[in-house]
Write a structure and sequence with these properties.
The protein has about 475 residues and is α/β, with parallel strands linked by helices. The protein contains 18 helices and 17 strands. The strands form four sheets. It has a five-stranded parallel β-sheet, sandwiched between helices. The protein has a five-stranded parallel β-sheet with strand order 10-9-11-8-12, with helices on both faces. A five-stranded mixed β-sheet has the order 13-14-17-15-16, sandwiched between helices. It starts with 13 loop residues before the first strand and ends in a 17-residue tail after the last helix. Bound molecules: S-adenosyl-L-homocysteine.
């Protein structure tokens, strides 16, 4: 972030506006509306500013910029319209460690005023740091329409209940859930729609219920998709925003983690790559413990929880403990890689079946049934293939898949780092070693792989989407 966002309380604070024209008037009005004590310093002062001064909140110092004034003011606004004078004001303010805004001069300013949507006490402030004012204006219009007009009424009402709620519900999780319920519920809707009703009795009833009930814990096994944050489902997002604890894999992208509640507890139980990892038994135990303690736990997994994600084992542990859970599917790596790399998993006349296969098997489980999987019009999506690539390719050829069958490894599919290498079944292991393909990567085998030349569309790093390809 180029700017540190903050809301400053200026009631009775001395603020200096240098300049006596219309721009200075506008800035002075803004400061006055926040309760600041404004000094206006300029050799010539417009009628509007004189009027404000007559009201008592503004004092006038009618002479050219006086650097000594800076010392005794919290904030400085340079609105003289003379760039040399503005530069002097900015330099004086910087030397005195005062925040200074130079009107229409971002580089000289140490603070800027955002675009504002005022539903006091709710204030939405927007800024692009001067990069795209028109974009900010459009955003503001959109948000203005979207935010209920009576949002301020709702916020003030919530504020008036805070002490009562705090003493009734000492636990922070209980309070948070009470507020979520209240603000999403019918009482809040009634206030927002302007129905002037006496809601105090209803609030007391809800508080009574919340006080006597034990906090119900719940686990949510959520598929985060293969990488692109846009591939998270809406149901997954909603739960991610509510969870108090988030147990996540290393495959889950930071962009998706950033969508979770800021104050959630994040626990990395990653099981890929080097470094310490948590055993499946320990994860199951952790889930059960936290849910039993009344927490809402989101178990966030790469791809889909029920495809090589051991989500089934976690759900069984929860079921055995008699605890409630939900499972939200995610887009599995095979679907993501197929779509983004342009390799349809099934395709008329090329592939009438697709199998999701793991190259890494549970200890003692033996090999996959390569004979069944080697059928000719069958696409194979092979997970965790990197360490066993040569073995897997050889087994398929041994069971009748022609050595010339197209095969591709898609690395980091759907992310900005996505790349793929294509070869034949016979050559893919050598090509992957030469190209240093790393995890996570998915092996796709079958004639559909050859469609990538026509159907690949994902071009990360390009600002503009590539022109649609002509299909021969
Ligand atoms: N539950 C996950 C799979 C977990 S197993 C899912 O449904 O996708 C981990 C394997 O998934 C990796 O070894 C790799 O083969 C595959 N994988 C996961 N994300 C991937 C990605 N972005 N690109 C390619 N392969 C990926």
């Amino acid at each position: 972030m180029d700017y540190f966002p903050l809301f400053a309380r200026l009631v009775d604070e001395p603020c200096l506006v240098v300049g006596g024209g219309q721009v200075a008037l506008r800035k002075t009005r803004m400061l006055c509306s926040c309760g600041a004590q404004v000094t206006v310093n300029a050799p010539e002062i417009c009628a509007g500013l004189r009027e404000l001064a007559a009201g008592g909140q503004v004092s006038l110092v009618e002479r050219p910029f006086d650097p000594q004034l800076v010392e005794t003011h919290l904030l400085v606004v340079a609105a003289t319209g003379d760039s040399a004078v503005n530069a002097t004001i900015a330099a004086t303010a910087r030397a005195a460690h005062r925040l200074c805004n130079v009107v229409d001069d971002g580089p000289l300013s140490s603070f800027i005023n955002p675009a504002v949507i005022d539903r006091s006490p709710v204030i939405v402030a927007l800024s692009s740091g001067g990069a795209a004012p028109v974009l900010v204006r459009r955003l503001r219009q959109q948000l203005e329409q979207w935010l209920p007009a009576r949002l301020g009424v709702l916020a003030r009402w919530a504020g008036s209940l805070r002490d009562q709620v705090r003493s009734a519900l000492p636990g922070i999780d209980a309070r948070r859930r009470f507020w979520e319920q209240l603000l999403e519920g019918p009482l809040a809707q009634r206030l927002l729609s302007g129905q002037a009703v006496d809601v105090q009795q209803d609030v007391e009833m809800l508080l009574g219920e919340a006080e006597s009930a034990a906090l119900p814990g719940e686990a949510w096994l959520v598929g985060a998709g293969p990488g692109d944050p846009g591939l998270l489902t809406l149901a997954g997002l909603r739960l991610l925003e509510q969870a108090e604890v988030i147990l996540h894999d290393r495959l889950v992208s930071p962009e998706i983690l950033a969508l979770a509640r800021r104050d959630a507890e994040f626990i990395d139980v990653g099981k890929t790559g080097g470094g310490p990892s948590t055993s499946q038994e320990a994860i199951n135990r952790l889930l059960v413990e936290r849910v039993r303690a009344g927490q809402r736990v989101c178990r966030l997994k790469g791809g889909d929880p029920y495809i090589f994600g051991r989500g089934g084992e976690e759900a069984l542990a929860l079921a055995a403990a008699g605890l409630p859970f939900r499972v939200i599917p995610g887009i599995t790596a095979a679907s993501g890689c197929a779509a983004y790399a342009g390799m349809p998993l099934t395709h008329r006349e090329l592939a009438s079946a697709v199998s999701f296969v793991s190259a890494r098997l549970a200890p003692g489980a033996g090999d996959p049934d390569w004979a069944a999987l080697a059928a000719l019009d069958h696409t194979l999506a092979i997970y965790m293939p990197v360490a066993r690539l040569a073995d897997v390719a050889a087994a398929l050829v041994r069971h009748g898949r022609p050595p010339g069958t197209p095969a591709a490894l898609v690395e980091a599919g759907t992310t900005r780092a996505q790349r793929h290498v294509s070869a034949t079944l016979e050559d893919i292991a050598g090509v992957a070693t030469r190209e240093q393909v790393g995890s996570p990567a998915l092996l796709l085998v079958g004639p559909v792989v050859a469609l990538a030349g026509q159907l690949g569309w994902w071009a990360p790093g390009q600002a503009k989407a590539p022109a649609p390809r002509k299909v021969a």
